[in-house]
Amino acid sequence: MDLLTEHGVRVETRGNVVSFTDEEDDLVVTTEDGRNFKTDIAVVSTGFVPETDLLQGQVKMDRKGAIITNKYGQSSDPDIYVAGDARTIEYNPTGDFEYIPLATNAVRQGLIAGINVFGNRWPEMGAQGTSAIELFGHTLSTTGLTYARALKAGFDADFSFFEDSYRPGFMPSTEMITIVIVYDKKDLRILGAQFFSKYDVAQSANTLSLAIQNKNTLKDLAFVDMLFQPYYDQPFNYINLAAQEGLKKEGLI
Ligand SMILES: Cc1cc2nc3c(=O)[nH]c(=O)nc-3n(C[C@H](O)[C@H](O)[C@H](O)COP(=O)(O)OP(=O)(O)OC[C@H]3O[C@@H](n4cnc5c(N)ncnc54)[C@H](O)[C@@H]3O)c2cc1C
User: What Gene Ontology terms describe what this protein does at the molecular function level (predicted)?
Assistant: First the structure.
């Protein structure tokens, strides 16, 4: 929020939008509590729905119209394989099938479906909803559940919080890095993680994506072998350190 405000973005999170009105050169956005915002352009980003009318009534779909497949990408009609934004995918943090319309899922499902039409040889691995965005010179990356979503999904969840320089202070420059790792208190299984830094932390979300898929725990992540070289990180990599914060919170180290 601070980053957006510092760059001249006015952030308003209250009030449902009820209308858009043209007014000379402006577009006026009106909220249900009666406030008006003058703007040049409005982008409505309330989510996606699958466009599956073509197969309505012919294959099984969820209540939003996303096609349900087995782990080989095969719909309820065995002659129809489905990939991409038209279908659901197994969401590994919860084990539920969810609608996660991302190109990363689409390309994997497409390739695997292409293999499986010649005989179901290659089961899918599911997804963590891993993604990243560059925001005013910062990277925000995420995989799996946030803390709020983990609680909503019914986990007895907690999170570790880590904030430090990504590499030693004796280097000519460094940046702060912020990491949140969400875990299940029951068995310390990793459920999600979020990264934020001026340093490029996009690939760190990929590392945690693999950890979630493999059902790794905080214990695994705290001490897994990761490289140290002062150009890149501290003697313990920041991912090790973030997991160790969780172990400290649990009184285990
Ligand atoms: C602005 C934006 C940014 C995004 N950025 C990212 C990102 O950074 N990373 C990421 O992972 N995902 C991103 N996504 C999501 C990503 O684009 C989609 O998940 C992905 O394109 C889905 O691929 P798809 O092949 O299933 O569908 P599409 O790419 O939508 O392709 C479907 C094609 O089918 C055609 N079609 C539809 N109906 C018919 C018909 N009846 N007959 C013939 N053709 C038909 C359509 O014209 C279209 O060409 C972004 C999406 C948007 C909108």
Answer: oxidoreductase activity
Question: Cα torsion at 225, 228, 233, 239 (round to 10°)?
Answer: 10
Pick from 58, 69, 85, 88 the residue to mutate for probing ligand 1's pocket: most ligand atoms within 8 Å of its CB: 85
Give the mutation target among 55, 102, 209 for probing the ligand 1 site: most ligand atoms within 8 A of CB: 102
| Tokens, residue 193 | 């993680």
Query: Which sequence spans correspond to the domains of the chain?
Result: 16-46, 53-116, 131-249
Strand partners, 114: none
Ligand 1 first shell, C-beta below 6 A: 54, 84-85, 101-104, 106
CATH of 131-249, one of 3.40.50.300, 3.30.390.30, 3.10.50.40, 3.40.50.620: 3.30.390.30
pTM of the shown model: 0.93
